[in-house]
Amino acid sequence: MSSSPQEAPLETFPALDALAPIRAGFFRRAPGLDVQTDRDTAMARLAGIHRAALDRAGFARMPLASAVQVHGNSVREVFGSDKFPVPDCDALMTLEHRLCLGIYVADCAAVFIADKLGRGIALAHSGRKGTELGITTRSIQTLCSKTGAVPCDLVVQISPCIRPPHYEVDFAAEIRRQAASAGVIEIHDCLRCTASDPAAYYSYRKECGKTGRLLAAMAMI
Predict the structure, then answer these.
(1) Please, are residues 89 and 193 in contact by the beta-carbon 8 Å criterion?
(2) Using omega within 30 degrees of 0 as the cis cutoff, is the peptide bond preceding 151 cis?
(3) In the predicted structure, residue 134 carries a pLDDT above the cut 90
(4) What predicted TM-score, i.e. pTM, was given to this entire model?
């Protein structure tokens, strides 16, 4: 199916699609949109496209909870009444329904974490530094502490991200290891590399920093 510059194609994950109370998606490169510029300009050009894509994908009339991502390991519980983006944060967690969590990436991984019983969700931005700081582990622990879930109640899904040989560190493998060490049993990785498919994904490294951002989104409905 062809796409115009007004479209950001949606990628979904079977493990998350199987969870009835969860809606999740990963919005890919908007074909034809010029993003060979600085981050703020690229994001401004993508803002309307992403909002329209969210609405088409079933997130209509949901607030988009986003963060000023800093490659750290801070996890923030968010509410529909909050002002977004929240500052200095790389993982968002909520117990609220119809609040869409949003994380932007362009080689880093988006880590979707969902309670199979629908008590809460978390979405983390985890690149090399965030992975080293254990943001996935912290997100799992925070979600469990807020919901009463145990790690085996959770599903973890790793989005497309940069991988060897295009990057010297396989941080996706470390994310999987951290999730398993935290006690999660159901861990999924799409295994797709952003740098190896520039027609489908934005890649910060491949495009020397002048590119757009992919949007990971998840909500309880």
Answers:
(1) no
(2) no
(3) yes
(4) 0.96
